[in-house]
Amino acid sequence: MTKTNTERKPEPCTLVIFGATGDLTKRKLIPALYDLYSEQMLPNNVAIMGVTRGDMDDNGFRRRMKKANEEFGSRKIIGKEWDAFEARLHCCAIDYDKRDSFENLKKTLESIEGKSELSGSRLFYLSVPPSAYLPIVKKLGEVGLNTPRSDDTWTRIIIEKPIGDDLESARELNDKVGDVFTEDQVYRIDHFLGKETVQNLLAFRFANGIFEPIWNRHYIDHVQITAGETVGVEGRGGYYERSGALRDMIQNHLLQVFAHTAMEAPARFDADTFRDEKVKVFDSVKPISHEEVDNVAVRAQYTRGKMNGKDVPGYKEEKGVDKNSVTETYAALTLHINNWRWAGVPFYLRTGKRLPKRVSEVILVFKQIPHQIFQVDGGPGGMNIDANILAIRLQPDEGISLRFGAKVPGQGMKIKPVTMKFDYESTFNTKLADAYERLLLDAMLGDAALFSRHDGVEASWRILMPVLETWQNEKIKPLPAYEAGSWGPKEAEEMLHRDGCWWRECL
Ligand code: BG6
Q1: Residue 361 beta carbon below 6 angstroms from any ligand 1 atom
Q2: Which range has the worst mean pLDDT, 180-189, 280-289, 353-362, 370-379?
Q3: By three-state DSSP, how is residue 342 classified?
Q4: CA angle in degrees (0–180, nearest 5) for 415-416-419
Q5: pLDDT digits over 257-266, tens only?
Q6: pLDDT (tens digit, 9 = 90+) per residue, 22-31?
Q7: Residue 190 near ligand 1, beta carbon < 6 Å
Q8: Ligand 1 near 434 CB (within 6 A)
Q9: What global pTM score does this model have?
């Protein structure tokens, strides 16, 4: 299967990755870049500079990246092709706190650009721990690497999540980055937005006439957004302890999917018009009061259990995790939107580690029929014909299914729920590109639509602050537990039962 090649080819540029030996670079960035290179989607002329605090030269970096691609890349290394790609990789050792180091980086960049006949457009990528963001940004500014080299070149910077760990720190980070780079130079990456199916959610809504008229409170009973993971914290205990599921997944990925599901149609698909609509949704979310947090939010932690028949340790037994940790590995949340489209329609969001299935999806549960005239044949709705369900599967098995009632063949009029399915990969007979491929290319092209703007990031933190504050103040409370391999705590079930709903199984 081949990937769909597009006409989108960026102009020549240099990509500068801070954190060149880190996890993200080897697991995601280099494999994505090699894939793009092999598909001839990178600029005709490109240099990739890895910046690291360690002691490493070009050859050491190339060897390491080859190994990384063999381990994590989806594309097999082909001798000549890799050699040509590798020739574009360079490395520069740096001390993030020293201005001299950055002067040296500047000179090295100019020299490589000179030799490679590159004009000097640059894309910086901060693939480093958040504590290093500001020191790097500040120094880039001090040595003048924040501004384009000339009128016909550009300079941009990609910043990874987390953007802050609460509203205040997100604001502070945005402000300080804003002192050095203009907003249109800043690309805050959320890799969920690079997923083909998250974008397809927009196509489904805004490229079809039949769904929008029913995409509202008159027809939709409630919406469920799930991002289930089978993995635990995968050796990232230190990071995860400070983060937890609400910050790690809901503040960014799930709220972005929520915004795509709930937003109004933008007038155009340009970065600002599109992002304006998303911010409007965040701003319309009914504020959660501290008093109601226990009713609308659930947190829990996994204990020892079985995954695929194998024993797995509980969260507190993971490396880097405090034995008395109260960090949540599962979070569920009910949100309401105060606008004409959605008033009264709950949006339930949930995510967790060590759940039985790796699955991300959006489920729209439609309202029940007003009057039933047929007999029901089984079905989760008991004696009632179950509501119609539209499920948009973001990963894996990307696709869309619609469940409706059909007549069971034979005498009488018995109704049974059946499913109509669209499968992304088999329909288009194409391998879906990795999210980082799409986003790296968009940043090189200067298309910021799928990146978060500062006000969007702050608005999403604002939604969650009462929950974070309440949880922070109740740290001594033992957290609800769920066994690894189960769908989460009973408290999350109860949250929906109180509204007469239940978590839906993926179709
Ligand atoms: C990351 C989180 O942003 O997203 C991880 O930090 C999580 O904890 C990951 O596992 C999930 O992304 P994906 O693409 O594997 O679903």
Answers
A1: no
A2: 370-379
A3: coil
A4: 135
A5: 999 999 999 9
A6: 999 999 999 9
A7: no
A8: no
A9: 0.94
